[in-house]
Amino acid sequence: MVTRRNDGNALARNPAGDDAAESQGGRNAVAGKVIRIDGRDEDSRFTAILDAAEAVFAASGYDGATMREIAERAGVAQGLIHYHFSNKQKLFESVIVRRAGHINTQREHMLADLFSCGQLPRTEQVVAALFRPTIESGLSMARDGGGFARILVMLANSTGEREQALAQKHYDPIALKFIDALQRTEPELNREDAVWAYMFAIGVGMTMMAKTGRSLRLSGGVCDDGDIERMMEKIVTYICGGIRALARKPD
Amino acid sequence: MVTRRNDGNALARNPAGDDAAESQGGRNAVAGKVIRIDGRDEDSRFTAILDAAEAVFAASGYDGATMREIAERAGVAQGLIHYHFSNKQKLFESVIVRRAGHINTQREHMLADLFSCGQLPRTEQVVAALFRPTIESGLSMARDGGGFARILVMLANSTGEREQALAQKHYDPIALKFIDALQRTEPELNREDAVWAYMFAIGVGMTMMAKTGRSLRLSGGVCDDGDIERMMEKIVTYICGGIRALARKPD
DNA sequence: GTCTATAGTTCGATAGAC
DNA sequence: GTCTATCGAACTATAGAC
User: Fold this and answer.
1) Is residue B144 part of a domain?
2) Residues 48 through 67 of chain A touching chain B, CB cutoff 8 Å
């Protein structure tokens, strides 16, 4: 008999996933608190915990983050985190699931729109669709901006089992669609080079999302990695140049 | 009165950095063990600790790594690590210093050689000089290959104070030389775009050094990020294409 | 130099009152 | 749902024998 809750869907509310001991009377399911049917309410400590976790994981990494700091930042008791998310691993995945679902839906729609209007889009537009939803989500985000983007950087570069499993589950399917798209906008690009092109594009994009401030240092104040719009412009130019160079020189 | 030792140079042997209490007789400085004057001997537990630390930091990150695991892997007592390196932070820096010095010397020489023989080199050669020494060091490395490269990925993508300080200290100077070199091989490239070009190149390079295995997954077994030579070929093509696209389209 | 043993701290997770 | 209190485990670092 395990005491864990919420074993299934990582974002399911009301975590009574174990057995059906619901009918023992007293304070049942929905008590006094207002719980919206769609489950995506602002306020509520549930969301506060996710926001705090996102910020702390982004700043300190998975191992560097502590449940205590997350609880403090969210303004809740540490025990409440375990009530809602069971453990650290599940909390981390929940942070990712919350954003990845919405972002990837957007990315998929942008991509579909590009190919739905008769003529073929430019590769520049495909690359823009690759990053735009993520950086936009990063900007409108909780407190200090860019938290989720930094978590994506961790996911992209880590070899850890935990990170690779999450990347595979939440990002591989959409990645394949972008690889297909690149082969359509650059017909000379063979499959191997299309995959490399995608991987390298992600690598360049991580430079933007990491926001380490190094470009500012190296350029003496000229290249600001906080100026997302300018950086997007440069990145799209660079990536498309790289892709076309691969297409021109196959083997 | 602090008990810390080895406060200065992170790789100084015989850590008696505190005061001059050397003349109290008995077992003095060099006792029975053979210590080579150049200080860079194989065997010896000092080196074993650095090798183990490199592997464990690479696999688990700074916070995920534990002194216990490093000690076990090195086959030494945990206390010995603190005798040689004082604490975790200094051990981490020592791991970086050991490789970065040698690698960056090589990179600097390769770069100087390219520009010393009369005519201007190709950008392709500059980009090769950027990565070749690092990946070669990664291959000839301790046990399982590529450990240090993965530590560089951490360094490049982290916003943490510790990582940024190390990157600045050990990698910013050589970075500026490569940025200068790019402006010489691509005269149309203005300074801002040269810095972006360098940052993006590093981003692409990190894709190679991270070796997550994702390209293999996405390509159904075709794109092997363990095949360094093939990947280098693709990366050089891609990066040069990107750089030239930036040079062609300034603003 | 190298080891054993352990002090002192912090972490993730649980128990139980309300 | 939410909080307080705490347990047991793991961590870094130190002390002291050899």
Assistant:
1) yes
2) 59-64
List all nucleotides in chain D with at least one atom under 7 A from a protein Cβ.
1-6, 10-16
Q: With beta carbons under 8 A apart, name residues in chain B contacting A231.
A: 196
| A165: in domain | yes
Burial class (CB in 10 A: 0-12, 13-18, 19+), B142: middle
- Is A192 within the bounds of a domain? yes
pLDDT in tens, A62-95: 999 999 999 999 999 999 999 999 999 999 999 9
Q: How many residues does chain A have?
A: 251
Burial class (CB in 10 A: 0-12, 13-18, 19+), B80: middle
* Nearest Cα to Cα of residue B182 among B141, B134, B242: B242
The residue range of the domain holding B143 is 97-248
CB contact under 8 A, B222 and A191: yes
Please count the structural domains in chain A: 1
- CATH number for the domain that contains residue B205: 1.10.357.10
Q: Per-residue pLDDT tens for B57-88?
A: 999 999 999 999 999 999 999 999 999 999 99
